[in-house]
Amino acid sequence: MDILGHLADGMLLSIQPLNLLLITIGVTVGLFIGAMPGLGSVNGVAILLPVTFLVPPGSAIIFLAAIYYGAMYGGAISSVTLGIPGASTAVATTFDGRPLALQGRAGLALVCAAIASFIGGTVANILFTLFAPLLASVALSFGPPEIFALMLLAFATFVGLGGDDIPKTILSICMGLVFAAVGFDQVSGAPRLILFNINGFLHGINFLVLAIGVYGIGEMLWTIYSTRGEITSTKAEISAAQIGRDAKECMQRGWKGTTIGSLLGFFVGVLPAAGATPGSLMSYGVTKMLSKNPKEFGKGHPAGVCAPEAANNSASTGAMLPMLTLGIPGSPTTAVLLGGMVIWGLTPGPRLFVEQSDFVWGLIGSFYVSNLAAVIINLAFIPLFIWMLRMPFTVLAPLIFVLSVIGGYAAMRDMHDLWLMVAFGAGAFFLRRFDYPLAPAVLAIVLGPIAEPTLRQSLLLSSGDPTIFVTRPVAGPITVIAIVLILLPALKFFRKGKPAPAE
Amino acid sequence: MELSKRMFIGLAGAAMATTMIPAAAMAWEPKKPIDFVIMAGPGGGADQIARFLQSVAEKKDMTNRPLVPNNKGGGSGAEALIALATTNDPDHTILVTLNSFFTTPLRQSNLGIDIQTFTPIAMMAVDPFVLWVHKDSGITTFEEWVDTVKGMDGEYVMGGTGKGQEDSIVIAYLSGAYDLKIKYIPYDGGGAVAKDLAGQQIMATVNNPAEAKGFYANGDFVPLLSFSDERSENFPDVPTLKEKGHDFSYNNQRAVVGAPGMSEEAAAYYQTLFKDIYDTEEWQGYMASESLAPLWMTPEETREFWKVQVARHQELLVAMGE
Amino acid sequence: MRLGEIITAGVLALLSIYMMFKSTELNIGYVRGEGPGGGFWPFWLSALMLISTGWIAFNWYRRTSPPSQSDEPVLDEYGWKMLFLVGGSILVFVGLIPVISMYGAIAVFLIYYLKFLGRHSWPLTLVLAIGLPIGFFFFFEGVMRITMPKGLSFTEPFFNVLYDIIY
Asked: How far is A162 from A436, CA to CA, in rounded Å?
């Protein structure tokens, strides 16, 4: 009851006129920032600073939560309409969202994303409200071996994602993992793989550079080539009735994905080192595995949009938990948020809930309100995004290229990254021509930077003894499940005997 | 329509303003947004301080062009040093540094960075280091800690931000001075280190008070030893290593430097700016609450300080086998 | 296609060999008591890449993968022309950024693409090519506080005026 009372106070605070106004503005701005490839909620914080000096800290953090939610919803918009994952959390959304858009069903994909995001966010909010302290202690019990085991599991859920050509899939995964190792070796503290001794590689290869290169440039060139530039894009209908029908289809075909995404996403998001990206990837993989027709995934199944979107919203809410309860950032955005709290004179950490309970509950209350505002505003803007897709392709294509370049620069502010992006784009175009699957490389470059350090930290802990992954109580079961999942397809492969030689 | 008209008037007005006032009549002022490079990734201690400085400048409206934070943490800050050394606009590029300002050019000599070419602007503060353990370990004094580490014979696990980083230098010194064998696990930031100490994945850390503050307030972390010259006001009961008879103290500098080749007028502008920020109530309050110690220096003193620090870090790095 | 398949595999093999070579700058072995060295991860994964390219080459030899059976050209005439006109223009676009600033390069790229590839009308072209960079300028520099490349120094007076407006 105590919790409900606090929560009610918090919500009342967030529906005060000033705060409600801030939420509306924040969600709208966040939606567009998130929809821009290369920009994400981290950048939204930049807008915050000037606002902070005009309103009290309580309102400022509510504004921030609104931007955060808006940006999370916005990530899916870029994945669906432009085919470029604007943030690593939205990679899995492109797998089915893009095919739907190309079939003229962008509306369905966007509606699915909005509804699933709302449900994911709500589920996460409820779990957050009820179990915050308990979950914080679970988060602490995850050390490097546990996180590595989790990464292994994330890879395992994606075994089936590649194309039919096994060596090309393996190559793609390895390439992503090697690219992830470029820049800096955290353990020895030495620069590593500074390719051709170009200093630009010192900061590593950013996920966005590869993702925008592959999807924004490579895939766009491929689309122009394979359609002979004839496509006039989607003819999707824009009407309230259509949105209603889409919502119904989304609920019927996507509820399972939404449920899996909401729960799995939250638990993975709560772990400080993991965050929303592995959460959304695993939810997609698990949903596909449990589906009756896994073959439909990747070709435009609504559940393939629902699962990762529910998960990334849920996880992003979950990522707030270690920040608020422990004072530890679960993602770059929460890291900047944390800095903001310090600037406002609050001490993040275990005492925050006790000493600043008004502030904390105001924030949690605003999560609920922001989430509701975000789904309404997002649904209202869907016709605009579909209208954008109806532009002639010779207008849409250059706009996508321009967004790719300006977004690719905005991410790291380095010309080197732009050249690299163009190179990846050209490479992706040709690899695509020869049937190399590229999604595995993009996933690998996201998971690699978490997997490698945790692997090596674990082995340092155990003095080089790899059994640490199976003997620890939490890591053990996760590792075993992951290995079984990885071996399953291989077993099938060998039982069938060698694939029939050259038909 | 209304908007474009207003913009036109603005444009015309601005154009007149820039042409009519002779440039020489005014003191130097930035003409573009100031590239405020941070030698670390987003979220860490250095980043927080940089953003705090920026927010103070913004709040008090102290600059006519904004400070734009730009995180360049790659290669232990090598990326940031290269960005400054090669900038084509040294008058609008400044850097927030930590001690990797000294160690990175030493460890990566192929970069060809000479920090003496950089322009001193301000030493905002120094951040002390403290040795922390988890309260469940039952250790309450430094002597107990030394005994425990010796008793574990190489199985004692500490976390930090990586080999060659500030905390590893301190740990290396301790290991040498007390003949300790410690297993050192590198993490990618002070926050991650604090989290794994709270979860008891690791047994002790050497961390800045700012990063352990929340857990300390909650009673989870116990401070054993500080590496400052004198006891800190925030931790009056924590002894220093100097009191234990070792002539060693170590701090992380929180300083602002300008790009090599910055004009004197621009340097003077930034020196005044950061002196003003230093004197604000906000910064003074921040230093107190985050346990930072003041160490204000003039530009000449700063250059002298750099020389001493480079020589000292060279010794420390050699001693730890780097 | 058949020739292209083996060339692509060859290029990837070269890339993996180069990355293996580059990884050896750090320890690629398994250090007793510490686990893998700094070069371990990239070296052995690059090695796996190299093995994969070998496998791809083997499939090529056996003619089991679709591209290795196909007689189609890698790209037809339309494909090469498209790659030159569209892909090349992106290259020029990025190349222009350090010269005439991000915003200038966007304007030039849009004029080229909309007018000469898209054959749209001048009014539409100009509205987009001028409006978009200005919109981006206010969005990135003013609101988001992200500074974009300003090009060579001759663009400076122009941007100084714009900065006077937004700050």
From this structure: 9
Residue located via tokens 């002779």: B22
Q: Are A240 and A428 in contact (CB under 8 A)?
A: no
The nearest alpha carbon in chain B to A190 belongs to B75
Contact A225 C128 (CB under 8 A): no
From B119, B120, B122, B143, select the one nearest B133 (Cα to Cα). B143
Q: What is the residue extent of each domain of chain A?
A: 2-495
B223: which strand partners? B132
Instruction: List, in sequence order, every residue forming a beta bridge with B37; answer none if it has no partner.
Output: B70, B95
Asked whether the predicted pLDDT for residue A230 surpasses 70, the reply is no
Question: Three-class SS of residue B70?
Answer: strand
Alpha-carbon distance of C89 to A354, in angstroms, equals: 58
∠ CA(A437), CA(A439), CA(A441), 5° rounding? 90
- How far does the CA of residue A460 sit from the closest CA of chain C (Å)? 5
Lowest mean pLDDT, pick from A44-53, A371-380, B76-85: A44-53
A338: three-class secondary structure by DSSP: helix
The whole-number pLDDT of residue C150 equals 86
φ, ψ of residue A183 to 5 degrees: the values are: 120, -70
Q: Which residues contact C94 (CB under 8 A, 6 or more apart)?
A: A405, A418, A419, A422, C105
* C122 or A386, which is more confident: C122
Q: What is the pTM of this model?
A: 0.88
Condensed to tens digits (0 to 9), the pLDDT of residues A144-180 reads 999 999 988 888 887 666 667 888 988 999 999 999 9
- Interior CA angle at A52 toward A46 and A54, to 5°? 130
Interface test with B, best of A328, A414, A450, A452 (most B CBs within 10 A): A328
Contacts of A398 in chain C (CB under 8 A): 109-110, 113-114, 117-118
Q: What pLDDT sits at residue B8? A: 46
Nearest chain A CA: its distance from C70 CA (Å): 11
Q: Quickly state the pLDDT bin for A229 (edges 50, 70, 90).
A: low
Contact C167 B18 (CB under 8 A): no
Q: In whole numbers, what is the pLDDT of chain A averaged over residues?
A: 84
pLDDT of B25: 44
Kindly provide the b/e burial profile for residues A431-467, where b requires at least 16 CB atoms within 10 angstroms of the residue's own CB: bbbbebbbbbbbbbbbbbbbbbbbbbbbbbbbeeeee
Domains of chain B, with CATH numbers?
34-127+251-319 (3.40.190.150), 130-226 (3.40.190.10)
Q: What pLDDT, on the 0 to 100 scale, is given for residue A163? A: 62
Classified as helix, coil or strand, A273 is coil
| Residue A348: closest C-alpha in chain B | B214
Chains A, C: CB contacts within 8 A come to: 195
CB contacts, 8 Å: C146 with chain B: 68
